[in-house]
Amino acid sequence: MPDEKISVIIPVFNKAAYSRRCFKAIVQTAYRPLEVVVVDNGSTDDTPTVLEAARRAAADAGIEFRVIRNDSNLGACTSRNQGLEAATGRYIVVMDNDIVVRRRSWAGQMCGILRGRPDVGIVCPKLLFAFPPYLVQCAGASVSPAGRVDFIGRGRPAGTPTLNHERELQAAISACWMMPRTITDKLGGFDEIFNPVMFEDIDYSYRVRHAGYKILYAPEVEMYHFENVTTGMSPTLNSTYLIVRNGITFKKRWSFMFSGENGPADDEYHWAEIEKVPLNCIAELDVTD
Description:
Elements: E1 6-12, H1 16-26, E2 34-41, H2 47-60, E3 64-70, H3 76-86, E4 91-95, E5 99-101, H4 106-116, E6 120-129, E7 136-138, E8 141-143, E9 149-151, E10 167-168, E11 176-180, H5 181-187, H6 200-210, E12 214-225, H7 239-258
Parallel strand pairs: 1-2, 1-4, 2-3, 6-12
Antiparallel strand pairs: 4-11, 5-12, 6-7, 8-9, 10-12
């Protein structure tokens, strides 16, 4: 249906080399009509140059490309909400600038799932580390009865059978997901109490589910994720403090749900430590059909 535009909202704050890879892949997306809304939170590096090159490439590909420029970093929640306000699509993708799509068909696949499943409020892909052997970074999120969040499948091979079937989730991470515009029309945007970052996506997942919608994991849609580019590589952010502060807010708000969901026990939680590979040591990531 030609009027089913997809809007991709991508906040950026510096990290121009990652943004370049992200946009280079995005403009190869097969789906139309497609718009990309970038919210630049006052970048001081080469990001404006990267954005101008991406704008030209998008225009050549028939993709709308708009940039909202902030004078300072307003945080992930506020910048995503700015993007939501500006987006005109029937389907909304929130995406971080450390994502690289793997296939041109990704947007059509995710949109097709939502189109056929009005009970689904969010669909998320399988995220892979962006270097060999391309292990799973996140196949959706689980929440223990005590409120501890785990990334399903982290560190496991991409071909692991249990990670290759569609299933409902307790939560998804906002590195990349798609939702129908009707969700944001009904629920609004991300809660800015979680600014600058951390737990805003887990909170939104529970808002979606509390409203009666499902969150679906679509393993056939795979994307590369460099991980922690926004938080772990921003020295002004105290990630440990934000995890604790925002985690407490999330637990107080949603314990009435997750405490009775039979999520994995805390002693089943295992955070696989994956050795990071510098960006300049990672080959270009091809987008295939």
